[in-house]
Amino acid sequence: MDKETMLASLLSIETSEWDREKRYTSLHEVSAYSLETLKSKVAHAPFRLTYHIQPPCGLLNDPNGFCYFNGEYHLFYQWFPLGPVHGLKHWYHVKSKDLVSWEDCGVALIPDGHINSHGAYSGSGFILNDSLHVFYTANRRDKNWKRSCSQVIAKLMPNGLIETVNDAIESIPPEYTEHFRDPKVWQEGELFYAIIGAQRKCDLKGTGVIYRSLNGKDWQFIGEINTQLTQFGYMWECPDYFCLTEENESFGVFIFSPQGLNPTDDKFQNIYQSGYIVGPELNLPNLTFSHGEFHELDFGFDFYAPQTTMTPDGRRIMIAWMGLPEIEYPSDKDGWAHCLTLPRELTLIDGKIFQHPVKELQNLRKEVIFKGYADDKSIIGRSAHFELILSDDSTFDNFELALFASDPLLLNNKDSAIEKLTVRYDSMARQVTIDREFAGIAFATKYGTTRCYKLSKPLTHIQLFGDTSSLEVFFNHGEAAASLRHFSAVNNNAIIWQGHKTSVTLWQY
Ligand code: FRU
């Protein structure tokens, strides 16, 4: 069967039927007509989001190449175009003037060269000689399916495609295994640095490796970042290093996504984690980074592989994949998977990262559905695409907030029958809980259906962003954040408050 014929039936196949041959099909091998057919089927699929970045079809994962260039933010993402599986990775491109309305620029990187024949993995963006350049991991496999990779510098051309400039790091230094990927570039004065996720050969543990360049094209290995986390998972994916200022002092922040941590108490509940360590700026000559504890960035169910960039006005912005590897999602059967989180501004308070949804999100506010006080047990409003802010003049008492809930009036107030995604607060324990046990189609239940977080101060403020099949919640102005997908029935859009009197504003998005 030729690939085109095989692909004609793609939308109806089960994830398990995606064999290696199907997964390694490039966009070049399918006609524009087949792709359009896939896209139009996906466009009519349930659970499509309304204001998040999502793939037109196929699977989205990590955000890549995030940078500001010539008055616009450019963002790419890992994309397997043809189905909801991890196959031959392409890069898809979107751009924006305000970080919230994104223009679709189509596919930017089709892995069709000898250098990236088996996929263009994650990487970052930077500006060189007035052009947007990227540094990414190019994969190859031999006849025996043995993988090799190199780290490639490439450039966004006027035709919208990313083309290879040079194979900057052709081979992996001998101390590391083939788990070596995801270069993230930063600049210090005239010099360029990059940190790459790696696995040591000596103990098969994860780490980050640093390179330096004078011209952005030729890179020299300088060594491994020297942290206290020497035995912390088997691989660190998607590293990112940058500085944040607190009280006029600059600190280094190192974000990475470790794989292989065991769950403990409320921590590390997802299949893989993403978090950060903070300390005095990385000492570049000897690569020592003295830092505090590793903190997870987000305690929700679906958050991975974040990447940051800096705005022209000096804000550090992070976007992540609102999904995780190796988990089947309910949208898979409709031929698409995943979305990105909303952009968040990062600040440092008492050495911890706070995350604030970027102020530009206010551009998405449409009418106010409700502004006033919610009391006792009340329906605040009905919406599946909203921003909701709850604040208490003093501090919150115990409450339960049900979102994407079925209408209790239609159910004769029988709570047990209500479908809902719940946010709860226990004021004694200062603990917030997200519970998706009763929220639509169950998935990833092997990893539990609740996530908890103990706040450092009593709760006074909550900001929530709901979209058809996603929810992002920020507690106490960004002390804690939780991101998750949910697959609730279309008509389940009631927002129900159960608790003491509290001030509420609800906007339609
Ligand atoms: C993280 C990751 C990266 C890799 C990419 C492949 O989700 O595994 O390490 O570059 O995804 O799609």
Automatic annotation (TrEMBL):
<dbReference type="Pfam" id="PF08244">
    <property type="entry name" value="Glyco_hydro_32C"/>
</dbReference>
<dbReference type="Pfam" id="PF00251">
    <property type="entry name" value="Glyco_hydro_32N"/>
</dbReference>
<dbReference type="GO" id="GO:0004564">
    <property type="term" value="F:beta-fructofuranosidase activity"/>
</dbReference>
<keyword id="KW-0963">Cytoplasm</keyword>
<dbReference type="InterPro" id="IPR018053">
    <property type="entry name" value="Glyco_hydro_32_AS"/>
</dbReference>
<dbReference type="InterPro" id="IPR013320">
    <property type="entry name" value="ConA-like_dom_sf"/>
</dbReference>
<dbReference type="GO" id="GO:0005737">
    <property type="term" value="C:cytoplasm"/>
</dbReference>
<comment type="similarity">
    <text>Belongs to the glycosyl hydrolase 32 family.</text>
</comment>
<dbReference type="InterPro" id="IPR006232">
    <property type="entry name" value="Suc6P_hydrolase"/>
</dbReference>
<feature type="domain" description="Glycosyl hydrolase family 32 C-terminal">
    <location>
        <begin position="378"/>
        <end position="498"/>
    </location>
</feature>
<dbReference type="InterPro" id="IPR023296">
    <property type="entry name" value="Glyco_hydro_beta-prop_sf"/>
</dbReference>
<comment type="function">
    <text>Enables the bacterium to metabolize sucrose as a sole carbon source.</text>
</comment>
<feature type="domain" description="Glycosyl hydrolase family 32 N-terminal">
    <location>
        <begin position="52"/>
        <end position="357"/>
    </location>
</feature>
<keyword id="KW-0119">Carbohydrate metabolism</keyword>
<dbReference type="InterPro" id="IPR051214">
    <property type="entry name" value="GH32_Enzymes"/>
</dbReference>
<dbReference type="GO" id="GO:0005985">
    <property type="term" value="P:sucrose metabolic process"/>
</dbReference>
<keyword id="KW-0326">Glycosidase</keyword>
<dbReference type="InterPro" id="IPR013148">
    <property type="entry name" value="Glyco_hydro_32_N"/>
</dbReference>
<dbReference type="InterPro" id="IPR001362">
    <property type="entry name" value="Glyco_hydro_32"/>
</dbReference>
<dbReference type="InterPro" id="IPR013189">
    <property type="entry name" value="Glyco_hydro_32_C"/>
</dbReference>
<keyword id="KW-0378">Hydrolase</keyword>
<comment type="pathway">
    <text>Glycan biosynthesis; sucrose metabolism.</text>
</comment>
<protein>
    <recommendedName>
        <fullName>Sucrose-6-phosphate hydrolase</fullName>
        <ecNumber>3.2.1.26</ecNumber>
    </recommendedName>
</protein>
